[in-house]
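Can anyone check this?
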Amino acid sequence: MDSHSEIESYRPPRPSSGEVRRTMMVWFGLACGVLAIGAGMFYVLTREPQKSEGSVEVTPQRANHTGVSVVQPGSGDRNGKGGEVIKPSPWRPDGAFFAQPSRDLRRAPSVSILEFPKLNGCDAIWGAMGRDARGHLWFGVSQRGDGSAVLVEYDPHHDKFTPRGDVVTALEQAGLDHPGVSQIKIHSRIVQARDGHLYFTSMDEMGENAKTNALSKWGSHLWRLRMPDMTWEHLGAAPEGLIALSSGSGNKLYALGYWGHVVYQYDIAAETWRSVRIGSEGGHISRNFFSDQRDHVYVSRFTLNNGGKTGRAWLVELDASLKTVAETPLEHYGDKPDGHGIVGFQPMLDHSIVFITAEGYLYRVYPNVLGSMAADVKPIGYMHPHGRQYIPSLFSPAGDQFVMGCSHTRGGIEWVVYDLDTGASSAHRLYFAYPDGRPTIRHLLYGSVARDAAGHFYLCGIDQQNYHPVVLRLEAP
């Protein structure tokens, strides 16, 4: 018999049923191991870098200064009308807070006008809001002319506003005051970092000029409010107007200065302070910028064309060393130098960030969780069903499908809801009234992200009829 016929006639012995079962168990175990390793890697790469759910990580050397308590996940709070229990999300360093979504997003929320205290010379809250881990709201209240901005705490449970100091007094206590010194605005968000303390910036406008890029006489300051004793601590000063503040990780702070969109970075642990100039021409100032959990920061660059009458914008992504990672054209940013740029943003449950421009156009940023690679910036569409509209606020009930905000229209104030899954949007009149019947048509309302422990949204601004700060609490139907 030749070799060929030997090969053809050979038949391997059939394995026993026990051998088949053992082989199948080996392969099943290997598959389970691969899946477990993959799931573990996914968790490490995407998890929120904090000690445990429902707690603020406190650095050991400052543990005795914090004592900040938080709403524990699953503890919940009633929605104010005896409805179902809202299950709050854990504290996040970007300030985002998620609860159960509204059952009926086709209706506008109910609005409560909060009785804000009269503070000497204070007339507006220019979107300067924040939320601490207890669910208390914080507001930076600004003045006109010269004077001092005031920091105010709001306890939703007791419906109580409490002033927590003013900027000029804090400068005096720090030995940094000068005759005639003025700090009329706290324009930035109030941010709670991973150490449990609150951070914000103050600024002045005396002598500044958009045409010549002249800076204000008194510049700006970065502050820390130490919790729980509520003491102010001066961290640094800048010649530019520090109009916005952001922290995606809770470890580093980013401040946006004008003119020229200068990004300042403050490393909380190292106590270091550095900056880089992004560039913004024609006196353009974006009212907002933002950062992600990797400490990448996103800020607009605006350049002039057409003889200086119009311009174009890019979203510039910087890494934690302030090096440029990517630049993405923003076709729906607005082309006028006096436009407000990015006017609202909302971090989402998956750590992406939705933001809105002064034209009312939505974009979504998907950070790359695998390392220092550039984020993916996706255009979404106009938020308002009628297209271009000024919507200087942004919220999301559950951080997934819906975003919503307040628009200023000629006919009044509207609540706009956008479905990120389908692209459908709707607008509803936002009704609220004062007991004395004074008009609300001249209200300007701002604010993003801020919610209390019951999941209510907050808007702030100015009543231009009486030049008085306004705070509204919105309760979903």
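Reply from J.R.: I decoded it. Confidence is low (pLDDT under 50) at residues 1-15, 39-86.
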